[in-house]
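--- STAGE predict ---
source: upstream dedup step, 1 unique chain passed
mode: sequence only
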Amino acid sequence: MSEYFVLNHTTRSGTWTLLLGSDNLDAPSPDIRIDCADQRLSTPQVTSGDRAGTWRVSVELPASLLSEGYRTILVVDQTTEETLTHLSIWTGQGSDENVTAEIDLLRAELDMLKRAFRKHCVDTLDIEP
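--- STAGE serialize ---
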């Protein structure tokens, strides 16, 4: 588990800024990366925060992210490979319809998994449904 956590984040003029913290006041500067669709974005700029155990992280969001569709940008602790937070960007016409369709598909898949899991439980425990 990562020793870092997100205290706050903002997006202004194409720059995503995060404030990371750690309960360990002597923790080293976080080793993080910024990913989008399995691609690494520009290297984030990490500086010490105003208080001990905090760091300010800034990353310029490339204009190519502002294309038609949905993008999720992840902040990953490279030491633990844990995702600390994410930023979602929806652009273009029909974004609402696309998201609704995705949610419907996820619900259908979840229902299928629930049925399969229940069947597995009944089969392995010899219990009547």
